Amino acid sequence: MTKLRLAIVGAGPAGIYAADILLKAERKFDVSIDLFEQLPAPYGLVRYGVAPDHPRIKGIITALRDVLDRGDIRLFGNVRFGEDITLEDLKKHYNAVIFATGAIRDTTLEIPGIDAVASYGAADYVSWFDGHPDVPREWPLDAASVGVLGNGNVALDVARMLAKHAEDLLVTEVPENVYQGLQASQVTDVHVFGRRGPAQVKFTPLELRELGELRDVDMVVYDEDFDYDEASKDAVASNKQVMVIDRILQSWRKRDSVNNAGGTASRRLHLHFWARPVEVRTDESGRVAALVYERTQPDGQGGAVGTGEMREVPLQALYRAIGYFGSPLPGVPFDKKHGVIPNREGQVLAKDSNQQLPGVYATGWIKRGPVGLIGHTKSDAMETVRHIINDQGSWWHPEDPSEDAVVALLQERGVKWTDLDGWHRLDEHEISLGAPHERARVKVVPREEMVRVSRGE
Ligand code: NAP
């Protein structure tokens, strides 16, 4: 029987779902899958993008783990695509590759002052609080007033992880250095800015409600933002999700703390709507000193137009949570404008033409951009996998498709890769570090230590 030797680059949900779907799919050939991951641990965004206090979403790991534990997928962690293994190598040893490398950088925002000291991308902060091995261990949390740009779930994650008291994270898997950093935070006020109104937000009700449940944090909303136009009223009336969001926000309007008058908490989380960022003002040292925003108003169709009125909010740090962006991969076409690999339903297209590149596929955020919840990645993977199955005639013809060949190659290059047994070792190690303190786990952060524990060295 014909065999498909498939390489998948990226062991996040997108890569693991694609492997699972292919292995379960009706097909007329055998499959053997090698999953390459640049980090020493699998699960991508679930491990390094979902906030530590969201164990429900982290629970997706259980399903992903079940797929890996079935034993028909080989994991090669700590292997960097483009350095430790290249597209040329993959062509020598596989019939096809799926890129599932996600989107981990921040979209840029072209406004004056955005490069100021203490102006950060949300993705970097998220990587820090999730213990990503490749970001600095220290994060300066010396600002009292902090701004967060954007009205998506990432903005709420960032706002919550700035406003929440460090002690309330102790039950989670928060890394020790992150706990220490958050404990030293000087924050008193977190200001979230959305460029449209409450009926046009991208975040979801559960995540919004959670903000109101933070201990010793008052929610502050502003009456002037709730003067709904017809389009907003329609959205509230016709969309269940918007309706719930509106209800939550309205409940905060009724509280004493509205407009900051009378709240008793030591920290406040302000939601500003109709605020389009215009400029970041800096002090003489070049550090963030204020955000200038233009007050916007509804355009009647769910959008916003400027009013010309400029406002300034003093801040000492700013986080932009206005979307993620994919990163280019060596030798693989890249669409610089959208931050994705150009593709048609997951079939990767050559750089300057619409021609399909045989054997090369994409799935997840690097395929469709950083939108949608983790579960949406499944339908995405189905589409890509369907094409791989149907494209059998155009797969690569590797010179050495044996399973040993890639192991020999990595060995020859001195790559210290981690495998599934190694991941189990690291997983158990982290859980055992947490157990005496009744914590879910304590994440190991330094890459060398992750590799050492995984490899049992
Ligand atoms: P998102 O949902 O697309 O939200 C991006 C936000 O940034 C929007 O409010 C957008 O406003 C705003 N924005 C974009 N460009 C802007 C600009 N130039 N100036 C000001 N604001 C700007 O993206 P995300 O928050 O990065 O989330 C990505 C995906 O991950 C989403 O599907 C999200 O639900 C998911 N996620 C889920 C969770 C969870 O379930 N707890 C947690 C994190 C992320 P406009 O709407 O006006 O464009």
Summarize the structure.
The protein is of the alpha/beta class and 457 residues long. It has helices at residues 13-24, 44-48, 55-58, 60-69, 87-93, 122-129, 153-163, 176-183, 205-212, 230-238, 240-253, 365-368, 376-390, 403-412, 420-434, 447-454, and strands at residues 3-9, 30-36, 73-76, 96-99, 105-106, 119-121, 145-149, 189-193, 217-221, 267-272, 275-282, 288-298, 304-314, 317-320, 324-325, 343-344, 347-349, 356-362. The strands form 4 sheets. A 7-stranded mixed sheet has the order 3-2-1-4-18-17-16, sandwiched between helices. The protein has a 6-stranded parallel sheet with strand order 6-14-7-8-10-9.
Number of domains: 2
Instruction: Quickly give the CATH architecture of the largest domain.
Output: 3-Layer(bba) Sandwich
Which ligands are bound?
A: NADP nicotinamide-adenine-dinucleotide phosphate
Shape: globular
CATH topology of the largest domain: FAD/NAD(P)-binding domain
State the oligomer: single chain
Percent of residues in β-strands: 15-25%
Terminal CA distance: 40 Å
Order of strands, widest sheet: 3-2-1-4-18-17-16
Structural class computed from helices and strand pairing? alpha/beta
Range of helix content: 25-40%
Mean pLDDT: 95
Q: Uncertain spans, ≥5 residues at pLDDT below 50? A: none
